[in-house]
Amino acid sequence: MAIDGGQGKRATRRTRPTSFDVAELAGVSQSTVSRALAGDPVVSELTRERVKRAAEELNYSIDQNATRLRTGRTDVIAVVVICRPGELKEDMNPFYYSLLGNICSAISAAGYDALVSFQDRAENLNGFYESNRRADGLIVMGTAENVEAWAHFREVSESGASMVCWGAPYPDQNWVRSDNVGGGEMAAHMLITNGYQNSVYVGSVTSLQRQYTERFEGFSRAMREAGRTPVIVQIDPSLSRLEQGRSAVRGMIETGMKFDGIFAACDQIAIGAMQELQARGYRIPEDVGVVGFDGINAGQHVVPPLTTIEPDLPLAAELLVKRLKALMAGQANDEWLVPVRGIVRGSAARR
Amino acid sequence: MAIDGGQGKRATRRTRPTSFDVAELAGVSQSTVSRALAGDPVVSELTRERVKRAAEELNYSIDQNATRLRTGRTDVIAVVVICRPGELKEDMNPFYYSLLGNICSAISAAGYDALVSFQDRAENLNGFYESNRRADGLIVMGTAENVEAWAHFREVSESGASMVCWGAPYPDQNWVRSDNVGGGEMAAHMLITNGYQNSVYVGSVTSLQRQYTERFEGFSRAMREAGRTPVIVQIDPSLSRLEQGRSAVRGMIETGMKFDGIFAACDQIAIGAMQELQARGYRIPEDVGVVGFDGINAGQHVVPPLTTIEPDLPLAAELLVKRLKALMAGQANDEWLVPVRGIVRGSAARR
DNA sequence: CTGAAAGCGCTTACAG
DNA sequence: CTGAAAGCGCTTACAG
Fold first, then answer.
1. Would residue A182 be called left, alpha or beta, if left means φ above 0 and alpha means ψ between -120 and 50 degrees?
2. Per-residue pLDDT tens over the stretch A36-45
3. Taking the model in full, what pTM does it have?
């Protein structure tokens, strides 16, 4: 009993060393320890070295909770991915995983920690990171289908939190998004120059997210300029994206619609469309050309590989973080447009 | 000047309300506010209601940094994804994205926040979350190639941090991993029952990660039991995974190796192998059968779709968190084996 | 260049 | 059931 020095059960995890312990060992004051380890240029190199050695010897690490309490900064950026209710783990659009990966590294590069969460239904909606001082700012992205979630984050934003979103459900917020109009135009040109006479847009135009509407706008404009009539085939947003593509094609064929080209609102819809077309004996790209949007990985593996419009993801992430930082600093920043490029693959390359 | 009440620049962001402000408005003491909002059953419902109303009126939120400093708990679990050096943003094995998604939701479900980071080279390696009191525990996963990173996290673990890993570079750690041996056996049986006479394993057996060796062990055992000779084709780990598969097949063909079945260490290698086989005119599954491991999304889209061994990812995530929580509580926990199931698709279904 | 002291905003024994 | 008080471990004016 006497062996553990009267510490009882706490014997294994001894109490952590504090800056006072380091100060004592280094023979300086606690404030000097703090300054030395924070890299304050005012302390002499000699002192700093002594402090560092002492800290190392004691295996001392700064308790960031104390730092954060004292400074009011957390150096954390929260990232929320909004999922469809109940879809938390599966079936997430892989595009968001790539965007998330890029965002996490942009956050690291900016010297922050990323606090990530996937949120779906009301029970686990919580965007008040800044109110709780768990983060200095917030990046939100995810499916437009979850209306409830977006309403919650609109509230968060209106409460004065620093928040930037990917996409655009509400016009009056801080957004970063792809050049969807430009991408839509590219898609139309790709189809036209490959000789597709009757191309249609497969996607939603009534979605909460302006992105899809914008893609159609660009497509529509380029089609009209080429003397074509822009046609839109509305999808059923309650289905999975693959199934949206399949059922759209099913509908088009069964109603006898005349078409030989498809611009899908996203790659997954495009892949679903390809599946349905091929299942019914249509050849791609000979009979029908297909263009998607996003640049997801799977697009390279389908046969034929999917032609798509791909946003510059690293830049998208960088812009999100940059814009958020400006917001946190109370500065203006209006960079929000992420350029896209057309990736030509087999699915829309006739001849 | 007098208008902003002498607050100067701070006029826009007024000082946050504290529990003292709430106490004053509710007419109770600050300690009662703390208890009431923490849900301490000792406070009367009447008082709690009064406090809640006051808190709402003042738009009060608890400053978690103060809570964390006081309690010593953060209720945060850090998750680190180790990437190949320089590969931070792209080319990540998509399997890790799915696992990460599952882990994040398991962490949420357990009532913690997830602090996620992607780490690659020495400059941004930092696993000392617990030392800095930024998290209560740590989950590590990622590529076996990054030896430097794993060495770092070994140090972290040895410093006494609560840490659980996915995979198994070092035997003496807390791991959760797939039933790789069982999966390897399944793969062998799938190939054998489909009539493939000469199946080989394409993957590394010298990797830091025991997982790949285990997959070969299972494969090897089942092959021997069926009277076959287990053959292994070592890949070049410096290449991308797709390229590993391609170059392995190239080597097999060019050296005149006799084979009609491939069990690849992971799906991406399998897909690369399929690409090379098809480019050389081999038909899958007629001439060669291919089985992968992981169950990544792209496997469903390649043609023919990839037969694979898929770990139960939601369970994997749950086990990682469960094991970590046990570790944090100083309890023993030996659940670490994640069951796998065989997904039969076209790539290994002869006839 | 360094030190003494105040204070960030909570939780939690202790006392009643 | 509630209150007064101590203290978690830092940073940062202020003084020298």
1. alpha
2. 999 999 898 8
3. 0.88
